Fold this sequence. Notes:
The radius of gyration is 17 Å and the shape is globular. The chain contains 11 helices and 7 strands. The protein starts with 5 loop residues before the first strand and ends with a helix. By secondary structure, it is an alpha/beta fold. It has a 7-stranded mixed β-sheet, with helices on both faces.
Amino acid sequence: MSAINYTRTGQGEPVVLIHGLGHHGNAWGKVPAMLSEHCDVVVVDLPGHGGSSAPTAPHTYNLDSIADQLEELFDELEVDRPHVVGNSLGGFLALELARRAAVVSATAISPAGFGTQRELLGIAMPQLLALKLASMAPRRVLSAVSQRPGLRAVAFRALYSDPRRQTPEDAYKDSLNLRQSSGFWPLLIRASKTHVGRDIPTPVTIVWGTDDRLLIPRQADRAARALPSATVERWPGCGHVPMVDDPERVVRLIQRQVERASVAG
């Protein structure tokens, strides 16, 4: 049995949602409930995040192994080549699953794998480390920051175009999850070495928010060059996690990808 925790709702075409580093299934906000009106929606917690334990032998935190674990979960759920949607590190995993032809389509939102070492070490990693360290604050401090829109805007500006769109409850849950995520450190090291360097035959859509402060928007240009067959969209007004900035648009994107793949199939 897979150690990956998941929730499953709705009926229709299967869609698997994969969050990013230090996040959990809650990262998808309103998207699963909205999408489940039309699809069979599986929301996973990556190993060492949310309700998922650390991987046990023969599995590891290596990204190839995590992709293996996700494929095993597909088998357990009796889901044959689902649509997969990933954000950040989850976007990289979505592209890896597409490269393996393990999915019928992949949608990658601000995926890892297209940044230079200077961008990763000088921009992304300092912000991720700051978020991790801030999550270690006493619970009363985390609660106070979550409850005050101005403080929330400062604390989570790396992730969202407007962090005030995030609910106080979700902000607090996300901080506690980040504090407790045993997978953060091993995956941070591996995420810094990701690289997507060849085209993928499976239908792929890549989205980048123009306000992304973590994996900066020019990485979308590299994605377009590296994956010439992919559809690349740039979304004004969205940050690194558009599921909070514009959940309706994310749902429309996924539905469109599902429909395109159905017509192509």
